[in-house]
Amino acid sequence: MKRLGTAITCAVAAVNAALAQPPGRRADSPAAAAIPETTREQSYADELIDAGGTVFSSQCGFCHGLDSAGGSGGPDLTRSELVAGDFRGDAIGPVIRAGRLDAEVPMPAFPDLASDDLEAIVAFIHDQKAQAESLEGGRRAVTAEDVQSGDVAAGRRYFEVNCAECHSADGDLAGIAARMDGLDLMRRMLNPGSGRGQSVRGTPRVDVTTDDGERHVGLLAYQDEFAIALTDADGRYRSFATRTVEFEIDDPLARHAELLEQYTDDDMHDVLTFLHTLR
User: Fold this and answer.
1) What is the pTM for the complete model shown?
2) Closest Cα partner for 1 from 86, 128, 109?
3) Are 188 and 180 in contact (CB under 8 A)?
4) How far apart are CA 263 and CA 39, in angstroms?
5) Angle, in degrees to the nearest 10, between helices 265-275 and 182-190
6) How far apart are CA 29 and CA 132, in angstroms?
7) What is the pLDDT of residues 168-217, one digit of tens each?
8) Alpha-carbon span 118 to 216, nearest angstrom
9) Three-state DSSP class for 249?
């Protein structure tokens, strides 16, 4: 059940618009959105809700999440205006039956879904909405919109002062927001040496000079208080006792570590919001 079509199209369009041109400081992220009030109160038997949970998890859970609060491509149904206005399936049912194949994120049709299963799914969705309304907090996950709470202009100014010596918005970072966004982009900004995607370019280089004046230069392979090791241009691994050599390390990511101790919350989100414009 990849979604209640018009709502998905609007949600996707809103996210794309936000990524292309984020406004100033914002508090209107999906995680902060209020759950719309149910138009007509309704209740369902526990047995029907339980049955609906089973059908929903197998037919709809991948896209909408097992609890209907959002998943892989499917939006949060507990915050759906269509669900809020539905009464015992009069709005949800037709969308499930017909699907939304022309939507930007298509939702398949379920014309052969048994009427009992459809009734159970409707009951489950409404029960999940009621449970979500009873929670004190509404945050389900962190989306790209959630972390774009900064000011683009302030982020650009911070970038030009603190980052432009090594990076360029129209050079190495051009299109970065098209390759990653949200928390992935935040992690890469704060700690670019972590996770997948670490390249040789980001590996510290070490220059070792032995007692007899012989120099060895390469990528840092290991370091502790007793030993330092490198991999040279020929791919050979060389290890030295630190007490017997002099060495210098050039770490291209050291500035990121320094900035971690200097960022204010505003700085961090300003820069991240600016980076989200680099598509």
Assistant:
1) 0.44
2) 109
3) yes
4) 45
5) 120
6) 17
7) 999 989 999 988 888 788 888 887 765 444 444 567 899 999 999 999 99
8) 70
9) strand
Number of other CB atoms surrounding residue 153 within 10 Å: 12
What are the structure tokens assigned to 130, written together? 């009621």
HSE (side-chain half, CA atoms, 13 Å) at 278: 23
Angle, CA 139 vertex, CA 134 and CA 143 arms, to 5°: 150
**Between the CA atoms of 145, 149, 155 and 156, what dihedral angle is there, to the nearest 10 degrees?**
50
DSSP structure class, residue 38: P
DSSP of 168-208, one letter per residue? Answer: -TTTTTTTHHHH--HHHHHHHHH-TTSSTT--GGGS-EEEE
Cβ-count burial 33-49 (b if 16+ within 10 Å, e if not) = eebbebeeeeebeeebb
- Give SS3 for 213: coil
- The model's confidence at residue 21, banded by pLDDT at 50, 70 and 90, is very low
* 213, 127 Cβ separation under 8 angstroms: no
Per the structure block, which two tokens stand in for 182? 């949200």
Q: Is 70 left (phi over 0), alpha (psi -120 to 50) or beta?
A: left
For residue 226 the two structure tokens come to: 């007793």
Going edge to edge, which strands form the sheet with 237-241? 237-241, 227-232, 215-223, 205-210, 245-250
Amino acid identity, position 167: H
Which has the closest alpha carbon to 269: 196, 170, 162, 183? 183
Burial group, residue 249, by CB count within 10 angstroms (0-12, 13-18, 19+):
middle
pLDDT tens digits, one per residue of 36-49: 899 999 999 999 99
